[in-house]
């Protein structure tokens, strides 16, 4: 039987609805992408059943940066460690980071904030097929967010 993957966020009206309703499905790559995004944006300790689940980049959110290269390596290490530990459907994982300062304008409050944008690119192979795949995420620090 072929494994089925479901789209996030889970739409509970399909779960509790009539028997003819179908939950939206996605491909294995989309499922991995969704899972890694959840992993990266979850602080360890938030998951009720595994307090280690998540990514320790949250610990670095307001950390004073003394050496940029050391900070980048530590950030990269936290991501790689989490993905290798918790995403079992991929192998040969490598990671690229691009870090920039960006202005974020809040038109409602009429304010501008400078945030650190970290573009994360994860390159891996699917265990099921050996196919190379790439996953991209944009994180903003201070406080950590995805938008």
Main beta-sheet annotation: 3 strands, antiparallel
The number of helical segments is: 3
Secondary-structure class? alpha+beta
Query: What is the CATH class name?
Result: Alpha Beta
Strand count? 5
Here the CATH topology equals Nuclear Transport Factor 2, Chain: A
Low-pLDDT runs = none
In CATH, the architecture is: Roll
Residues in helices, as a percent range: 25-40%
Could you say how many structural domains there are in total?
1
The gross shape turns out to be globular
pLDDT averaged over residues:
85
Beta-strand residue fraction? 25-35%
Q: Trace the largest sheet across and list its strands.
A: 3-4-5
Could you explain how this protein is built, in words?
By secondary structure, the chain is an alpha+beta fold. It has a single domain (5-141), classed as Nuclear Transport Factor 2, Chain: A, CATH 3.10.450.40. The chain has three helices and five strands, in the order E-H-E-H-H-E-E-E. The protein has helices at residues 12-16, 28-40, 68-86, and strands at residues 5-6, 25-26, 90-106, 111-126, 132-141. It has a three-stranded antiparallel beta sheet with strand order 3-4-5. The mean pLDDT is 85.
């Amino acid at each position: 039987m072929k494994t089925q993957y479901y789209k996030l966020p889970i739409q509970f009206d399909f779960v509790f609805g009539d028997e003819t309703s179908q939950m939206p499905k996605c491909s294995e790559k989309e499922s991995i992408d969704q899972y890694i995004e959840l992993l990266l944006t979850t602080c360890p300790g938030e998951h009720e059943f595994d307090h280690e689940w998540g990514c320790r980049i949250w610990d670095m959110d307001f950390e004073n940066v003394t050496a940029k290269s050391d900070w980048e390596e530590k950030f990269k290490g936290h991501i790689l460690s989490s993905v290798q530990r918790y995403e079992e459907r991929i192998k040969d994982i490598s990671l690229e980071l691009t870090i920039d300062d960006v202005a974020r304008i809040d038109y409602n409050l009429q304010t501008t904030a400078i945030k650190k944008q970290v573009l994360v690119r994860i390159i891996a192979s699917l265990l099921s097929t050996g196919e190379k795949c790439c996953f991209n995420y944009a994180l903003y620090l201070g406080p950590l967010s995805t938008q």
